[in-house]
Amino acid sequence: xxxxPLAAGLIMLFTTILLPGCKESPSNVNMESTFITDPHxxxxxxxxRVEALDLQLTVDFDAKILFGTAHWTLAPGHGDTLILxxxxxxxxxxxxDGKGVAFLLGAKDPILGQPLFIPLPANSxxxxxxxxxxxxxxxxxxxxxxxxxxxKQPFLFTQSQAILARTWLPCQDSxxxxxxxxxxxxxxxxxxxxxxxxxxxxxxADGKYQFEMEIPVPAYLMALAVGDIDFKSVGNRTxxxxxxxxxxxxxxxFGEMEKMLEAAEALYGPYAWGRYDVLVxxxxxxFGGMENPRLTFATPTIITGDRSLVSLIxxxxxxxxxxxxxxxxxxxxxxxxxxxxxxxxxxxMEAVYGRDYAEMLAGISHADVMExxxxxTAQGKADKTKLKAQMEGEDPDDGVxxxxxxxxxxxxxxLEETIGRERWDAFLRGYFAENAFKSxxxxxxxxxxxxxxxxEEWKLIGPKAWIYETGMPANCPxxxxxxxxxxxxxxxxxxxxxxxxxSEYSQWSAHEWVYFIRGLEAKDGANxxxxxxxxxxxxxxxxxxxxxxxxxxxxxxxAHAQSKAFKEALSGFLTQVGRRKFLMPTYRALKETGQLEWxxxxxxxxxxxxxxxxxxxxxxxxxx
Length: 624
Ligand code: BES
Ligand code: ZN
What we know:
Strand order of the largest sheet: 5-4-8-2-1-11-13
Bound molecules: ligand BES, zinc ion
Structural class: alpha+beta
Radius of gyration: 25 Å
Mean pLDDT: 94
């Protein structure tokens, strides 16, 4: 790192004293986002903004690093300093329009990283940063060949949301700031590289790949994956990328993707991004899915062979409108991304699979949010049950949960039910069209909504209570699922000792089984071995079923939880799967039932298989 005290002092002076009064403002930028203050970024867009990136990187699997140059084009009319977000980057040189300049890295914050200050001569055009990552870069997961399905080649993938783009790219890492990008990525010969951009469908003979994302996107949607990956088309605009041994299964699983895309367009307007493909990642992917534009990243735990978990694809596809077109301005407005997306996901599922199916999803969503409100309130964190979040000083990754997703969903569902579906859908179509490629604040959404609703509707719904108050408002809609009613009935009968005939549940989806298991109470604990024998939960291949079953047994059936078969299944799952949503409740259940030591032992083996995002959460939980 270079550090010139004099230049540093001057830059500090510029930024702390001169910048706030700076009269110059970039000319061609979305002014609304220019004045957003994002507590999770050091960028000062009112002073200087970037509008395009040309990224040239080499992927070095031996050293576990990326290295190369990021060429940033500045928006015209910039001020005298550019501030970028960085987190543990090895910056070797910076040039402005071909001339080397001194730069300064500010103090490191453990969550936000370091601001990179670059002094800009008047009328600068391009800032080129030569840099490399370190092997521990938090967005990146480097998997050895043994950690992949095919075991032939290593694998790399990124996870940039929420604020990890800065751990592999010096950038203005704020969801309210967008830029176009091109990239040229050199990978070892024989491997495929993919990004959130135009993608190849075949491997390049020389391992060199060119990408382009001509639509401006925020940094959290930057993505890269490299590995032993093949492609197969599913529909006109849809396809699947996966390791060769996973490809056929994935193509079957996502066979209805094109239908989903058509249903989504029929609901809320044309798909803006060209192709929609899905990349199936190795099991350590820390999320279910990530809506990287043109290329959703997905966990392999949804490849179940029966298409039972494809609502996750509907969810990530829906983000192509809610999130990628209309983007939360800051992570405090995260519910605008996720609440809208859960709502849209549900509507896609209803259109493709029927109301009955969609109401099951809504039922699970309701159970999730009500449970979360009880938990958070009991922990004295009722403030965290507000839709509009206050994440200053916290890691925005910690705000991912049922409040933004499911409370957000129910708020929008209430709007639909109050003003009628026809009017609500027309409103949403207009909302996406008018705000496309812009960022959205909660407060601006409230203004837009206010214009749509009559005074009476406004009072009836109470949007401000939904958004700014804790808990669940009394007017929360109730899902009605006949399929879940049938599950409840079966559970009651089972409790009375009446065995159900196989034919009565052989058609159940994973959602029905999840609902069944979640309906079990402490008093059913003694019957757990019987349940397991009859329904084979511990042997299930479906991760959603397994994870709720594990938690139920650990908490309510201590003897069964100690059985060899159960412990093997549990430790196998925890070692294989790195999806945080499954890991956290399971490790928490172990910790809270006096099995912290065993949990730590399993975790010691499993940890090298997890992505940094999952490690961070589990480390904190288990006190590692
Ligand atoms: N964008 C999120 C994942 C995310 C959110 C990553 C915040 C990092 C920070 C993605 O769309 C998502 O919601 N994934 C869910 C899918 C589920 C709701 C269908 C997941 O991973 O579980
Ligand atoms: Zn989402």
